[in-house]
Each structure stands twice: as structure tokens, then as C-alpha cells.
Design brief:
The chain is mainly α. It has six helices and no strands. The longest helix has about 30 residues.
């Protein structure tokens, strides 16, 4: 339970010893995160409704737009709580390892594909995507 509050293990130990953070502060933070999750779930629901409404009737196999898929993926992954500093550092390390394993040609191809996909987004979609990323990052990370 305490781990779900986004606390590092060292802070959990201090809390259990009675030397850590104020439990009321933790409960207020958990309430705020729960409200953020509910908001994110509502946004995911709205995104799914919009994609379903745009989907052709009769089971046609026309795919949603790239922008819709990106939005759906982001909403699905960000509907959970904000990353902790530990999680962010772990993901950053994994990304660095994965990038280091690629050849310069693979990195260039990956960058080209990313730029191509981003260029298909409207300014509003791009702005919203960047905001969702900022919302997911731990406090103090730009």
C-alpha cells in the first residue's frame, strides 16, 4: 500500500519507524493522485469514444489516424500515477542502454521515423502530447 503512494523504500522505512513524513501529507498526496487518475481515465474514455465514433460501421478495417493511435497509447500509459523519481531513473537508464545498443544508422532511422510521426500531428495534438508527458514526469524533472 505505501509503495503505491510513490514512496521510495527508504521513506517507507522512516514512516513505519515514526521518523518520516507526515501521514496526513501522504494521504492528501494520494487523494490528489487518485483525482488525477480519475481525470486521466475520463480522458481515456473520451478518446476511445471519439475513435469508436470515427470507426467505419460494418466492421470495415480502416485504421485510426496516427494521431489517434498516439493519443490512445499515451492516455493508456499515463492514466496511472505520475512516475516516481526511482521509476524515472530506471526508465531513463533502460532507454540509454537500448539506445547504446543501436548502430548509428539505426539511431538515425529511429530519429527519422519519430520526426515523421511528429510532423503528422497538429500543433494542438503536439502541445497536448507534450503536456501529458510533463504531467507524467516526477516533480522537478523537465
Amino acid at each position: 500500500m505505501l509503495r503505491s503512494f510513490g514512496l521510495p523504500l527508504s521513506e517507507i522505512g522512516q514512516l513505519l519507524d515514526g521518523t518520516g513524513a507526515d501521514p496526513g501529507r501522504l494521504l492528501r498526496r494520494q487523494l490528489r493522485q487518485t483525482e488525477e487518475q480519475l481525470t486521466a481515465l475520463g480522458q481515456l474514455r473520451d478518446t476511445l469514444r471519439r475513435i469508436v465514433a470515427d470507426w467505419p460501421a460494418g466492421g470495415d478495417s480502416a485504421a485510426p489516424t496516427i494521431g489517434q493511435l498516439i493519443e490512445l497509447i499515451e492516455r493508456t500509459t499515463t492514466m496511472t500515477q505520475k512516475l516516481t523519481q526511482e521509476q524515472f531513473e530506471q526508465l531513463s537508464g533502460q532507454r540509454a542502454e537500448a539506445m547504446a545498443a543501436l548502430s548509428p544508422e539505426q539511431v538515425a532511422a529511429l530519429q527519422r521515423r519519430r520526426e515523421e510521426q511528429v510532423s503528422r500531428l497538429s500543433p494542438q495534438e503536439l502541445s497536448a502530447m507534450r503536456q501529458r508527458r510533463r504531467d507524467m514526469l516526477p516533480d522537478g524533472v523537465a
